[in-house]
């Protein structure tokens, strides 16, 4: 059967994140502190949700992309029947979904820049409100966003950048990832074009292209979204060790409680 673009991009997403960005240990530690059940919005292919389930937590993951959800199910099954039973996957829109188990989750989060995909500030605020609606009293909401600096934004001028070349496990194909980004200061957004090319050396590659519009979020905006959703901001951290948010921090991690 011919591979669809959605299936290919989901598979290549996993290859893109085959090098751990460093956030998994944070969520394992937070889950150990809060207990379950746990809600992940933009669960993707289960990179975080499956290890949380394997660690003994009941996890619900929400995503709009059926190809990503298929990969998450496969990853959970590969981790064993006990892990698979602990993971519930739901196709839905993080901006508006309301699960039957709303108001019962001890931990709810949006990982690794996924909030950027939500298009507008109103959409992003709606996602934070979804976290708040699903938390039990004293439950913890977490949102993780990258903070580009002026040099990063200056490079977002449409130039084409080779990001990596990797061998794809199981196929032996070489995969290259190339990206081009354009920064729009009027909307705080980046138009990101990603090109994956995969093939064996000396053979014509197969090319897959993805285009996203990412709306960046400043720390004060993230705080305002949480407070508007009725959450009490506990911290704005600057790294996955939850160190303080300081000048030139590479990311902001919101931790907020449901009163």
Structural description of this entry:
The chain is α/β, with parallel strands linked by helices and 259 residues long. The protein has helices at residues 5-16, 24-34, 49-54, 66-78, 81-86, 121-134, 150-155, 219-228, and strands at 38-41, 59-63, 87-91, 105-110, 135-146, 157-167, 174-184, 189-199, 206-215, 232-237, 251-257. A 7-stranded mixed β-sheet has the order 3-2-1-4-5-11-10, with helices on both faces. A 4-stranded antiparallel β-sheet has the order 6-7-8-9. Helix 1 crosses helix 4 (66-78) and helix 6 crosses helix 8 (219-228). The longest helix has 14 residues, at 121-134. The termini are far apart.
- The rough form would be described as globular
> How many DSSP E strands?
11
Radius of gyration: 18 Å
Q: What profile does the largest beta sheet have?
A: 7 strands, mixed
Layout of helices and strands, plus pairs?
Elements: H1 5-16, H2 24-34, E1 38-41, H3 49-54, E2 59-63, H4 66-78, H5 81-86, E3 87-91, E4 105-110, H6 121-134, E5 135-146, H7 150-155, E6 157-167, E7 174-184, E8 189-199, E9 206-215, H8 219-228, E10 232-237, E11 251-257
Parallel strand pairs: 1-2, 1-4, 2-3, 4-5
Antiparallel strand pairs: 5-11, 6-7, 7-8, 8-9, 10-11
Helix pairs in contact: 1-4, 6-8
Search tags:
single chain, 259 residues, globular, alpha/beta
Give a short synopsis of this structure:
The chain has helices spanning 5-16, 24-34, 49-54, 66-78, 81-86, 121-134, 150-155, 219-228; strands spanning 38-41, 59-63, 87-91, 105-110, 135-146, 157-167, 174-184, 189-199, 206-215, 232-237, 251-257. It is α/β, with parallel strands linked by helices.
């Amino acid at each position: 059967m011919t591979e669809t673009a959605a299936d290919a991009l989901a598979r290549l997403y996993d290859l893109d994140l085959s090098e751990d960005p460093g956030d998994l240990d944070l969520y394992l530690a937070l889950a150990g502190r809060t207990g379950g059940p746990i809600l992940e919005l933009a669960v993707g292919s289960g990179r975080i949700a499956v290890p949380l389930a394997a660690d003994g937590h009941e996890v619900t993951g929400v995503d709009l992309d059926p190809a990503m959800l298929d990969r998450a199910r496969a990853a959970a099954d590969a981790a064993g029947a006990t892990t698979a039973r602990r993971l519930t996957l739901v196709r839905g829109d993080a901006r508006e979904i309301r699960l039957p188990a709303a108001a019962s989750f001890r931990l709810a989060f949006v990982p690794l820049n996924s909030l950027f995909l939500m298009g507008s500030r109103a959409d992003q605020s709606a996602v934070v409100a979804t976290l708040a609606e699903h938390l039990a009293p004293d439950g913890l909401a977490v949102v993780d966003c990258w903070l580009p600096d002026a040099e990063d934004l200056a490079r977002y001028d449409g130039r084409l950048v080779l990001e990596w070349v990797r061998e794809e496990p199981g196929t032996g194909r070489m995969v290259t990832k190339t990206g081009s980004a354009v920064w729009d200061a009027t909307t705080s957004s980046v138009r990101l074009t990603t090109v994956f090319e995969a093939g064996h050396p000396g053979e014509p590659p197969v090319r897959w292209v993805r285009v996203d519009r990412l709306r960046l979020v400043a720390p004060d905006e993230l705080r305002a979204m949480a407070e508007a959703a009725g959450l009490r901001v506990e911290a704005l951290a600057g790294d996955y060790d939850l160190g303080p948010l300081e000048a030139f921090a590479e990311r902001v991690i919101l931790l907020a409680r449901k009163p």
